[in-house]
């Protein structure tokens, strides 16, 4: 005992262990009880949705995916299905998987801190919020024909026709896209030299590639909303 | 207080009680350890944990609650399976029966449905807390990867269940969702470069998911089997790995 006390005082190791029974188990049981009560009482008052029998001949308008996919469905406004519905979710999942291998900052392991990992926390929180903002728009602000309605507006079928859209000329589009990734990769590496050196080339390129794709998604949304650009890159095979 | 202790005596000091529990519980350190390690369910836990790991303000209890909701969904799901038949001529009527005829059927269906939504939320909040505490850092990188797969599986579990009521809501939601598969590069017949592999509506990846070119009886059966058997089994296996790794990686993360 004494040895342990001494070591503790010397800060050699932390002996802050407590018995799982009852310290943790009691809280788990309480949580389980509260969740059960919550679910059952909510279910007592609010019915799960059930519409008419399915009818392939009569499409719902708007037809919406379950809410957790509505962020992706919202992106269908700005991108073709192969990107918004398949490639982008793929990139998101891959990016999530890569996080532990990209973030080699040893600080902030096992406790809350913003100061010691500003970059990682900011990027993740922004991405997380972006995902839910898109879900909110897709869920609450999209009416028939996926037209936009503010919360205080009534969903109607007669809304102004959207302005005509145009594609960027191919060379300009390619130049913009390549330039965006090129500048986005090179500039921060030059300005924030130790950020680049700490990560190493591979980690740096993957990290920034993912971040730029997230930012690029927002930029494409702005291009569409403000300048009516349909595609940045329009080819017979693929459109972005 | 006297009343309570008298009552306690009445309940515990008789032949029936003693025939079940055999001996009392003396609150000693040894017994606290034994409670955990001699119980098949509780021994998922270590006998002792670091104090901060029991704090709700550290874990937000979100991993545990996600797991609990999964168990809740399993239980209510099994009960629903007693009534529901994945047949396009019956499915909708079975759900209507659950809502209006089956005793407690409405509560059963509602809580299964809301539980599914709740699980999607809690799993994503759990991921958020794991990120904020940097708990994916060494040695826990791989458990984060397992977690991401669990996240995707949670979405798919909820998504496959959406079609089962066979109503307009589910039908068109699944239509929107699976139409995306059409556009898969290479593998969907409307996707870029799919001509290379000779994709047609009746041989591409969407066809494989739906078992047809339209959402019909085979699609309902596939959704049902994925939802009730395949995905829960895969997710359970991954959860075992997930919990095992929490222990093997040194318990809940914390400051050194
Ligand atoms: C069905 C889904 C999941 C279940 C049931 C689950 C359950 C749990 C539980 C019970 C813990 C113990 C600590 C706590 O409660 O916070 C835990 C820890 C952990 N989870 Fe999950 N989890 C799931 C999904 C995820 C996801 C989506 C991620 C990340 C992408 C993840 C990453 C982790 C990591 C890295 C730990 C260790 C945390 C630490 O040591 O502080 N899990 N999980």
Computed over alpha carbons, the radius of gyration of chain B is 24 Å
* Unreliable residue stretches of chain B: none
CATH homologous superfamily grouping of the largest domain in chain B: Cytochrome Bc1 Complex, Chain C
Q: Catalogue the ligands.
A: protoporphyrin IX containing FE
- Summed up, the helix count of chain A is 9
Percent range for helical residues of chain A? 55-70%
Please, what is the average pLDDT of chain B?
94
The number of distinct helices of chain B, counting runs of at least 4 residues, comes to: 11
Morphology call of chain A: flat
Distance between the termini of chain B: 44 Å
CATH architecture of the largest domain in chain B: Up-down Bundle
- Based on secondary structure, the structural category of chain A is mainly alpha
Q: How would you state the average pLDDT of chain A, rounded?
A: 91
Please provide a brief summary of the model.
The complex is a heterodimer of chains A (240) and B (256). With 240 residues, chain A is mainly alpha-helical. Helices cover 58% and strands 1% of the residues of chain A.
Q: What can you tell me about this protein's structure?
A:
The complex is a heterodimer of chains A (240) and B (256). Chain A has 240 residues and is mainly α. Chain A has two domains: 2-45; 67-227, no CATH class. Chain A has nine helices and one strand. In chain A, helix 5 (81-102) runs antiparallel to helix 9, helix 7 packs across helix 9 and helix 8 crosses helix 9 (201-227). The longest helix of chain A has 27 residues, at 201-227. Helices cover 64% and strands 1% of the residues of chain B. The two termini of chain B are 44 Å apart. The longest helix of chain B is centred in the last third of the chain and has 32 residues, at 217-248. Chain B is mainly α and 256 residues long. In chain B, helix 5 (62-81) packs antiparallel against helix 7 (105-132). The model of chain B has no long low-confidence stretch (mean pLDDT 94). Chain B is built from eleven helices and one strand. Chain B has helices spanning 2-12, 15-21, 29-37, 56-59, 62-81, 91-100, 105-132, 141-163, 168-182, 205-210, 217-248, and one strand spanning 48-50. The chains are: A mainly alpha (240), B mainly alpha (256). At the A-B interface, strand 1, helix 2, helix 3, helix 5 and helix 6 of A face helix 3, strand 1, helix 5, helix 6 and helix 7 of B.
């Amino acid at each position: 005992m004494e040895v342990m006390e001494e070591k503790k005082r010397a800060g050699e190791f932390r002996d802050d262990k407590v018995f799982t029974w009852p310290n943790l188990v009691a809280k788990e049981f309480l949580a389980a009880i509260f969740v059960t009560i919550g679910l059952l009482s909510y279910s007592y008052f609010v019915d799960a949705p059930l519409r008419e029998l399915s009818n392939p001949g009569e499409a719902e308008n708007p037809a919406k995916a379950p809410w957790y996919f509505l962020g992706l469905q919202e992106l269908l406004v700005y991108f073709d299905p192969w990107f918004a519905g398949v490639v982008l979710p793929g990139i998101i999942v891959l990016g999530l998987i890569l996080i532990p291998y990209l973030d080699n900052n040893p600080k902030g392991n096992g406790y809350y801190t913003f100061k010691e990992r500003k970059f990682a926390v900011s990027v993740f929180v922004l991405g997380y919020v972006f995902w839910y903002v898109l879900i909110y728009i897709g869920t609450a602000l999209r009416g028939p024909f996926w037209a936009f309605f503010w919360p205080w507006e009534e969903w109607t079928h007669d809304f102004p026709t959207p302005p005509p859209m145009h594609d960027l000329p191919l060379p300009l589009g390619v130049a913009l896209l390549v330039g965006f990734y090129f500048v986005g990769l090179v500039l921060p590496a030059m300005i924030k030299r130790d950020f680049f050196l700490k990560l190493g080339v591979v980690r740096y390129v993957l990290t920034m590639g993912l971040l730029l794709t997230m930012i690029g998604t927002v930029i494409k949304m702005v291009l569409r909303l403000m300048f009516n650009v349909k595609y940045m890159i329009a080819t017979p095979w693929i459109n972005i | 207080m006297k009343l309570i202790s008298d009552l306690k005596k009445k309940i515990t000091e008789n032949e029936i009680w003693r025939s079940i529990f055999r001996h009392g519980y003396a609150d000693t350190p040894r017994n606290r350890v034994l409670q955990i390690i001699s119980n098949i369910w509780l021994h998922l836990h270590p006998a002792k944990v670091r104090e901060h790991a029991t704090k709700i303000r550290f874990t937000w209890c979100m991993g545990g609650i996600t797991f609990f909701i999964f168990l809740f969904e399993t239980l209510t799901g099994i009960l629903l399976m007693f009534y529901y038949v994945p047949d396009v001529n019956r499915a909708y009527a079975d759900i209507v029966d659950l809502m209006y005829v089956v005793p407690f059927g409405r509560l059963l269906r509602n809580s299964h449905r809301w539980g599914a939504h709740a699980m999607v939320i809690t799993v994503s909040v759990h991921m958020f807390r794991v990120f904020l505490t940097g708990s994916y850092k060494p040695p826990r990188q791989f458990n984060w990867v397992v977690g991401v797969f669990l996240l995707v599986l949670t979405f798919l579990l909820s998504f496959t269940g959406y079609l089962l009521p066979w109503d307009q809501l589910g039908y068109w939601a699944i239509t929107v969702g699976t139409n995306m598969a059409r556009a898969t590069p290479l593998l969907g017949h409307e996707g870029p470069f799919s001509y290379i592999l000779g994709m047609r509506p009746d041989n591409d990846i969407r066809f494989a998911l739906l078992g047809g070119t339209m959402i019909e009886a085979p699609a309902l059966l596939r959704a049902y089997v994925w939802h009730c058997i395949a995905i829960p089994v895969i997710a359970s296996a991954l959860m075992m790995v997930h919990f095992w790794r929490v222990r093997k990686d040194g318990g809940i993360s914390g400051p050194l």
